[in-house]
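Title: Prediction job returns without error message
Component: structure pipeline
Severity: low
Priority: P3
Assignee: unassigned

Description:
Job completed but the reporter wants confirmation the result is attached to the right record. Sequence as submitted:
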Amino acid sequence: MFDHEVIAAFGQERAIGRPAVDIEEEKRVERPDERRRLPVLEIGPPHKDANKDKGTPILLPDTKRTWIACFVLGAVFWIIGLILWAQGGIDEAVLFYYNPMRIAMDPIVVLSKWLSSNGMAAITVLFAVYLLVSKKLKSLDAPLTVYFYTICSFGLSGIAGDLLKEVFARPRPAATYGSEIMALSQSLTPAIPSGHATKSIALVLPFILLVSHSKNLHKGIKIVIGLIAGGVCFSRIVLGAHYVSDVLAGIGMALIGLPLSMMFANMLLSNMKQEQLPKLSYIWGFLLIFLTWVFMAL
């Protein structure tokens, strides 16, 4: 007991004998576990609310196989077209085969004139009607993005085809044969690839390849627009506006242009949201009508 009292008194004595400055410095020293932690400030809304505000990303179709098939098939059409151009005989034979029909204005020529002048407009009208009716009938469930793919395919392939015309600079049949044939087209642009063939096929490819064909109505629409687009291509041969090789190259142009235009469209769609599609579809519909009118006026 005595020892403890001596030790306590000794410690108290030392504490009393220490300078006040040392004691104050000791008080100011903070132990690591006693340091004050600053509150973490959260900037912006919580993560879930942020995702809600951003909306739902648009699901893009997985079409790699379709793209490869289009590239290969388009290349085949181009190769055949270029071979026929170099060979010359088949192009000339087909051109002169329809010449008597053009002179006599056979029914096939009359139908070809209508298809050549109004075929693409008829397809666009069908698309516009489908878009409007689909807002009321849930059975018409084609993805709204198909209209944007159609604009890109139609526009980019059409422009690329028109630029390639100037590169190849092939004269039209009327410029080559003059009075030997009756050509029911006065276009002064070069011949290959056929602009009507390129644009009409590019116009229908997205709907035909991207819309589900499990429903009979969709099958029927695909058959109708496919026949109209094919009729536009054929009409250019019947009217003497193009050679067979020009039309084949135009079809190849549309096939090769589809994957490229869809890549471009996907880059833009990746920045859009699912909730925007209903309003955007109307804008795309108007743009498609306007683009069709521009191409037909040229």
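Comment from assignee: result matches the submitted record. The CA atoms of residues 35 and 233 lie 82 Å apart.
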